Amino acid sequence: SYELTQPLSVSVALGQTATITCGGDNIGSNSVHWYQQKPGQAPVLVIYTDTKRPSEIPERFAGSNSGNTATLTIYRVQAEDEADYYCHVWDSSTVVFGGGTKLTVL
Amino acid sequence: QVQLVESGGGVVQPGRSLRLSCVVSGFTFSTYGMHWVRQAPGKGLDWVATIWYDGTKQYYADSVKGRFTVSRDNSKNTLFLQMNSLRVEDTAVYYCARGLQHPAYWGPGTLVTVSS
Questions:
Q1: pLDDT, tens digit, for every residue of A61-75?
Q2: To the nearest whole angstrom, how far is the Cα of A75 from the nearest Cα of chain B?
Q3: Which of A34, B12, B59, B82 is the most buried (most CB within 10 A)?
Q4: In what order do the strands lie in the sheet with B3-7?
């Protein structure tokens, strides 16, 4: 079965840039989506189809996908960005989530 | 506005059954595929099952195949998850989510605890 690999944790200073990776075999040939989840809340879609951003998500959130790695980049990180982030792939019959990355804002 | 609300969770003994419901509003339910996704305490997101907009196709994670059944009643805007032969490892918050490729709307979840 297809697997997505994320770092367990990423730390970033307030106002700096955070990069969260999602590794998978030839993941660049799939559409990758990203979710933010804060404690006690349901996940929120922040990036879909590699690079697209829902209208309510700040422009600071960006995505890319190539080769064996998809990346979520958060520019000018704010305190409210501290959360768990999950990458996700849907291949028409199976849903796969990465293990999640805890983003800590210092 | 789009709303999804799960219900039916609770405490159940191993081997017993439970049926979850997800009532939706604010959109045309019959035109969207739906997922069930769960999250064990302190763990990550874990896909459970998917059903097409018209109910003609269902897909399941290997961990629940043969025990769980996803269904829907488009006339009642309701998604279901019938869970049989429950195991301790099925303990989780269960979310329903709208849309097949990248579900953009999720319910708040309902907690299922399997314990003797």
A1: 999 999 999 999 999
A2: 22
A3: A34
A4: B3-7, B18-25, B78-83, B68-73
